[in-house]
Design a protein that fits this description.
Keywords: Ethylene biosynthesis, Iron, Metal-binding, Oxidoreductase. InterPro entries: DIOX_N, IPNS-like_FE2OG_OXY, IPNS-like_sf, Iron_ascorbate_oxido_reductase, Oxoglu/Fe-dep_dioxygenase_dom. The chain has 317 residues and is an alpha+beta fold. It contains 8 helices and 14 strands. An 8-stranded mixed beta sheet has the order 1-2-10-7-12-5-4-3. Strands 6-11-8-9 form a 4-stranded antiparallel beta sheet, with no helix packed on it. The protein is globular. Bound molecules: N-oxalylglycine (OGA) and nickel (II) ion. N-oxalylglycine binds at residues 175, 177, 191, 196, 203, 206, 211, 251, 253, 267, 269.
């Protein structure tokens, strides 16, 4: 595959969110409106925690296939635990994705009102410390996500705490992804063109090449974040809520240049979801004469997620 040109997504620093919230909100909103993506440094997730999480991720995926398969729950929609190589297929794609992954969800107290919609976590027996590491990382992503959402709210002219209620005890998922080495002549791509389902996605690990966005111009552009930066993108729920003011941009992970094909690629997206009972109802301020309401019928986050998981083959109708 020919190398795609680089997307000029402006680098942002989350430090500015505290120092100059209005300017940060405008910059983040501008980046989202142009690309559906933003590149954010100084996101507050501690570097040593991230390093531990990469080590755990590599150690887990290095386990024998049978060991990993013990954590696969067929029919569970891949919501928690392990999903083997070549299971997920992007909507409308002809090849399955060349990836295996692990999903961590929110730890809910027993008897929590969302227990029926949010499955309990599954934890592997090894590597040691996996559970503690990812509970801690989940919380750190939650904090970073809250700060980003408050900037998004400002950009949309809402109260900075507008999303607090929407995402409290939300159905977010932390995905540990492994794209194994591929043969020189592998067909297809590591992850087919798709849009994310959730509000926003916070991604670590995109320094290893492959992630591309489909630009408004119709061109595929490579995303090349600086070391340690987070790639943040708008998902379909936020696009729907904002009547497409903030676009959920199609993206994919292409197979790398031949000299990198012998290497694994690891990444960690945090799919930030609202609470299951949050009603996705078009924000009135995003409806105008030129931009009529595309979604006159609201839908709960839970029902919307279910519809989408059926489409990508993770849940049976
Ligand atoms: C995803 C995704 C990108 C990556 O899992 O939805 O787009 O770089 N991942 O792995
Ligand atoms: Ni994605």
């Amino acid at each position: 595959m020919l190398e795609s040109p680089t997307a000029h997504v402006p680098p942002l620093s989350l430090t500015d969110e505290a120092a100059n919230p209005a300017a940060f909100a405008a910059a983040l909103g501008g980046s989202f409106e142009r690309f559906g993506f933003a590149v954010v440094s100084d996101h507050g997730v501690p570097a040593d925690l991230i390093a531990r999480a990469w080590a755990m991720t590599e150690a887990f995926f290095a386990l024998p296939e049978e060991t990993k398969r013990a954590y696969f729950a067929p029919g569970g929609g891949g919501a928690r635990g392990y999903t083997p190589f070549k299971t997920e297929i992007a909507k409308g794609a002809s090849h399955v994705d060349l990836k295996e992954f692990w999903h961590v969800g929110r730890q809910l107290a027993k008897g929590h009102r969302f227990e029926a919609q949010m499955a309990p976590n599954v934890w592997p027996d090894q590597p040691e410390g996996f559970r503690e590491t990812f509970i801690e990382l989940f919380a750190a992503f939650d904090t970073a996500g809250d700060r980003l959402l408050s900037a998004i709210a400002r950009h949309l002219g809402l109260a900075p705490d507008w999303f607090d209620h929407a995402v409290r005890d939300g159905n977010s998922v932390l995905r540990l992804l492994h794209y194994p080495p591929i043969p020189a002549d592998a067909p297809g791509v590591r992850a087919g063109a798709h849009e994310d389902i959730n509000l926003i996605t916070l991604l670590l690990g995109a320094e290893e090449a492959g992630l591309e966005l489909l630009d408004k111009t119709g061109e595929w552009l490579a995303i090349k974040p600086p070391e340690g930066a987070m790639v943040v993108n708008v998902g379909d729920m936020l696009q729907r809520l904002t009547n497409h003011v903030l676009p959920s941009t199609t993206h994919r992970v292409v197979n790398p240049a031949p000299e990198r094909r012998g290497h694994s690629r690891y990444s960690m997206p945090f799919f930030l979801h609202p609470a299951p009972d949050f009603l996705i109802e078009t924000l009135p301020s995003t409806i105008t004469a030129e931009r009529p309401n595309r979604y006159p019928t609201p839908i709960t986050a839970h029902d919307y997620l279910h519809e989408r998981l059926v489409e990508i083959g993770l849940v049976k109708a």
